[in-house]
């Protein structure tokens, strides 16, 4: 996966316009978007208004009858203490990059930014994912075997701390989408890499493609169509350096959470692979 590192600065700043040197992406990348409903209709990530707002996507693999998309991941929730600072940063980013959308729910961030409560609830209050394997198609007859083997290899997991330490820009393999993400580079990194290796073993046994050779665990907060990594990197770098949440805290995590377990989603059905016992 192509990635461009966005710095995590140490100087604080106040609200102001975005860097004039950072170009705004070509809006022609987004086409066929229906007019959005009022922001007060957006109550939950599963609302019909959210579905109404979804943009056209390009599949990472062709749909085949009898195939189901498989995704193995660690669920992550952003703690309340971190949401307000992240929401303010997202508002600054979208003022320069208006084509950014909230991850998964695909609601344009410029709509959510009109209401701080909706922004925190819909863009930051949902479940995020640290991927432990590629999203790949599996056949019906492989499902039980996949789930069983994943549980066998990952059943004995203990809680550990995960720190998200810096902002990162990622681009998907076919360069059709660009993501604003938070990367794990310290606490939790070694444990997550071991879990990725275990998932890779199961993938290999089912003739599925393994994960990236140098995995970079992360969650994604927002996305835009096309490869706009160069311009988005400049904007993120500029705004992060001026953000109070980065001021004077070089090396300090943006936020941390506890590893609680691993899930696997196949089609629309979720499977619990492992769940850490209560301490």
Kindly report the average pLDDT value: 80
What gyration radius follows from the Cα positions, in whole Å?
A: 19 Å
Tell me the helix content.
Answer: 25-40%
Major sheet, described briefly? 5 strands, antiparallel
According to CATH, the homologous superfamily is: Cyclic phosphodiesterase
CATH fold descriptor: Cyclic Phosphodiesterase, Chain: A
What is the CATH architecture annotation?
Alpha-Beta Complex
Class per helix and strand makeup: alpha+beta
Strand percent estimate:
15-25%
Number of domains: 1
What is the end-to-end distance? 36 Å
Q: What order do the strands of the largest sheet run in, or round the barrel if closed?
A: 1-7-8-9-3
Features:
single chain, Cyclic Phosphodiesterase, Chain: A
Explain the layout of strands and helices.
Elements: E1 2-5, H1 48-53, E2 67-76, H2 80-96, E3 101-102, H3 109-112, H4 116-123, E4 128-131, E5 136-139, H5 140-154, E6 161-164, E7 166-171, E8 177-183, H6 189-205, E9 218-225, H7 229-242, E10 255-258, E11 261-266, E12 269-275
Helix pairs in contact: 2-7, 5-6
EC number: 3.1.4.-
GO biological process, one term: U6 snRNA 3'-end processing
InterPro entries: Usb1 (IPR027521)
């Amino acid at each position: 996966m192509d990635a461009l590192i966005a710095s995590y600065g140490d100087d604080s700043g106040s609200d102001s316009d975005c860097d004039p040197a950072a170009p705004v992406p070509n809006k022609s990348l987004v086409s066929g978007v229906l007019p959005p409903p009022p922001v007060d209709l957006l109550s939950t990530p599963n609302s019909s208004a959210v579905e109404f707002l979804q943009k056209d996507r390009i599949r990472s693999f062709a749909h085949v009858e009898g195939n189901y998309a498989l995704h193995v991941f660690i669920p992550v929730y952003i703690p309340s203490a971190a949401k307000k600072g992240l929401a303010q940063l997202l508002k600054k980013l979208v003022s320069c990059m208006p084509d950014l959308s909230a991850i998964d729910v695909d609601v344009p961030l410029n709509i959510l930014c009109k209401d701080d409560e909706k922004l925190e609830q819909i863009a930051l209050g949902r479940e995020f994912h640290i991927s432990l394997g590629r999203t790949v198609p599996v056949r019906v007859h492989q499902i039980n075997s996949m789930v069983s083997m994943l549980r066998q290899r990952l059943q004995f997991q203990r809680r550990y701390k995960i720190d998200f330490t810096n902002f990162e820009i990622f681009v998907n393999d076919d360069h059709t989408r660009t993501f604003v993400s938070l990367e794990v580079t310290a606490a939790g990194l070694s444990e997550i890499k071991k879990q990725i290796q275990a998932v890779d073993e199961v993938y290999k046994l089912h003739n599925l493609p393994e994960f990236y050779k140098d995995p970079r665990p992360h969650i994604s907060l927002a996305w835009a169509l096309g490869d706009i990594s160069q311009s988005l990197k400049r904007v993120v770098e500029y705004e992060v350096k001026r953000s109070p949440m980065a001021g004077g805290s070089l090396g300090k995590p943006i936020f941390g959470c506890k590893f609680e377990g691993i899930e696997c989603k196949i089609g629309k059905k979720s499977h619990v692979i492992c769940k850490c016992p209560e301490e």
